[in-house]
Amino acid sequence: MKIPFDNRILTSMLAMMGIAPPYLAGFDSASGMLRATAAYLRGEDFPGVGIASPMTEPLLALVNQLPRSLQESIYIQGSAGEAIAADKLGNVSADAVAQWMVSEYPQRSYPAVAIGSSCGALVHLYAALDMPWLPQTFLIPVKHPGIDPDEPKKILEWSKQPARNLLEANPDLKLYQMHDPSQDRLTSQGMSYFRVKRLRLGKTYERFLENSLPRGGTIFLVECQRTYPTTQVSDRHIFQFGALGGATAEEFLHGGERVAQFLEKYQSPRRKWDSPTPDRDDRPEAEWGFEPSLREDVERFARQRGYRVRRITFQEPEDMSPFVAEFYRWWYKQRQIVSNRLLVESFILQEPFWTLRTGSVPFWMKFNTEVSFNWLNQYLDSTDAYDEIYMMLFSHGTDSIGLSSIEDWRTVLNRARLRGEFVGVDEDKYPRDFATFMHYYTDLPKTIRVRYPLPEPLPLEKLDQFIGERGDEFPVHWSDDVLGDVQEGEETVHSL
Q1: DSSP labels, 318-330
Q2: Helix H or strand E segment including 465
Q3: Is residue 17 in a domain?
Q4: Per residue in 389-440, pLDDT tens?
Q5: 21, 80, 236, 440: least CB-packed within 10 angstroms?
Q6: Sheet holding 237-241: strands in order across?
């Protein structure tokens, strides 16, 4: 259903009925991970990253066979089709987005609710603990007038007025505009990434917490501490040139051999980017980083309602991946089922339902870059060998800087003692394997044929037990602040 951008009341009403506002990106970490979490809590699997039907698989397979130039054109146009016109940003409603997000979950009582940074590994922790997650950050794709992606200063200058319109209409949001002409080279040709972070809970999140958490219930604050060089445009408008992926912040800002080779390959007249000068202090990274203003508001709300607040802090988005993988392995051993089957997920290609149905240990990668490749190998070096390793790979259509090759990923599969296979990957088409956005889902239950019943949710005490036994092995920190009328001011910190 096409909803008018300028009808805020209609958009809000439809959001409460489960229809996402049309300006909210569906093909994004926050919305994708929320949909995956909510689907599991509804007892459902997760086809087409939550936005595509299995009936689209033949069409996606057909796109895989097209010439590269036509594939890229389809990808660019399809991405731009999600974008809102810049002059309509004043009609965006943060509350309508929140209404849709809470509507995705079954409206019932929960032992805990998580709020904060996106993290694919934590989707599996939420599934295990029967815990909804509410994002702090979400993405609004905004159409721009065909600005060259290699001209970040022009992108920034164009964005100033649209940003003002958005922020004037939404005082509880802070804009972290992100521009990445490497990893997002195709999508950024038609749109700009307006990532916004909540500064306060807002009435819809507050109402969901009141209806879902009994007094004394737990709010988990998920805080990724990753920062990035940025430029402050106005009080609530931050511009970030570059993103976490294959290229480093230094390469985005100052160039280098890999940047020059990349730009030459894509027939750019440049050999490095002329980027806005970043400020002295880094700020929370646009997609993954946590804006601390929200913590203050959550703690205020918790004190008033007698809720418990527990903070989960970590530096890199993937820092949670070894923790969750070993937590599942520990849980499976307690359930007396096989714990030597690893399923490697990639960005928003996730399946918490089939992970548990197949007794797979989840390991989430932020993306398919050398950083994720090395992090996965470090994990495999540190744990008992797996008999089986299966892997999904997200395709973004670009030979971006630092992207690991299909040959690299095969070396990981070769580390399995008995069986290593890709799930839903056309090896000859990667990283232009657009059918994988559905094929990961249809291929997984056929590739891993073992079936277990969905387990009962784990009580929070089991998480504490695992932290007590093995927490010091992982680069994650947990703090337990007892607020409200339960007990004021006490704090216990576990270093993981």
Answers
A1: GGHHHHHHHHHHH
A2: helix 460-470
A3: yes
A4: 999 999 988 899 999 999 999 999 999 999 999 999 999 999 999 889 899 9
A5: 80
A6: 137-143, 191-198, 173-179, 237-241, 231-234
Q: Which helix (H) or strand (E) holds 164?
A: helix 152-169
The answer as to whether 59 is a domain residue is no
Q: What is the pTM of this model?
A: 0.92
Name the pLDDT band for 337 (thresholds 50, 70, 90). Answer: very high
Residue 298 lies in a domain: yes
Is residue 372 within 8 Å of residue 404, measured between CB atoms? yes
H or E segment to which residue 493 belongs: strand 490-495
Please tell me the total count of domains within the chain.
Answer: 1
Residue 362 to residue 143: CA distance in whole angstroms: 36
Residue type, 390: Y
Q: Which stretches does DSSP call E strand in 188-307?
A: 191-198, 218-224, 227-228, 231-234, 237-241, 283-284
Angle at 39 between CA 36 and CA 40, to 5 degrees: 90
Domain containing 203: what range?
8-42+77-314
Q: What is the pLDDT of residues 346-361, one digit of tens each?
A: 999 999 999 999 999 9
Q: Is residue 154 part of a domain?
A: yes
Between β-strands 191-198 and 137-143, what pairing exists: parallel, antiparallel or unpaired? antiparallel
| Max CA pair span of the chain | 64
For residues 237 and 163, is the Cβ–Cβ distance under 8 A?
yes
